[in-house]
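Re: [help] complex structure
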Amino acid sequence: MNQPAPYFHWGFILISLPNLVLIIVMLALFVAALVAPFPHGGGRHRADDDD
Amino acid sequence: MTEASGGGAEAAPHASGEGVGGSAAPDREGGWTTAVRDRLTRRLSIDELLPTRQPAYVGSWVYVFGVVTIAALVWVVASGTVLALMGSAWWHTSSLGHFFNSIHFWSVQMFFIFMVLHLWGQYWGAGWRDGRAKTWMVGVVIFLFSIVTAFTGYLVQQNFDSQWIAVNAKDAVNSTGLGGFFNVLNFGQMYGLHVMLLPIGVTLLVVIHILQVRSRGVVRPIDDPYVPDAAPGSASGGRAR
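Output below.
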């Protein structure tokens, strides 16, 4: 832990391994949030009646 | 004594005069307090502040990112309060201090991760539609405030890491022209900003952001054809209050 992180260098892109892992995890989390089924309670309905 | 009673005698007609005048005036008095009260009552009814049901399209994990960000902020503020109470010697030397230091650090990581995920969700869902531009803009300001708050946090760790960051950042901030006021080598200024002014600013803005979201409800999906309150001739419909 107490040493510099490995870096990846592709052209103008320079990024550390922890940051790259974090971005990949965030993208995966976002995609999962889009496709994962959301548990609905008993009262699922179109409640947006806009009073 | 005489003056006091005389003053009271003079004051009485004013008070009763208001009452008389009030009976002749309209029921609702003017003034900014009435205007603010009416506006708040109209825009922030308790049903909208604490709803029991949400539209069906809110049933997605994407809408959880915002509230997770708020939960992380609660942990950030709570752990930061403990750190501020106990001081740097405590958070650097004791095991409990290390624990709270880590709680503060990792809750900040969660705060930023889920704030960015929330940002992605609102960006690709065009969350600023139907009169929600101010909500989006306040969110942007929260993001910017949070970055400065986190930056000042790195500067006040009271270790070599914070000194290294401060010395390097000094040149960067100077290059923006702000170095004369925002002096990253001034520990007192950075600490005051980090534990007082900026957290108050972020928290206040988050409260405003939540009230904005609650007052207008969650924006409809772009492709949602369900438009119950579309005005005749309206192209978009939806809630446009």
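The interface with chain A takes residues 47, 53-57, 59-62, 64-65, 113, 116-117, 120-121, 217, 220, 226, 228-229, 239 of chain B (CB under 8 Å).
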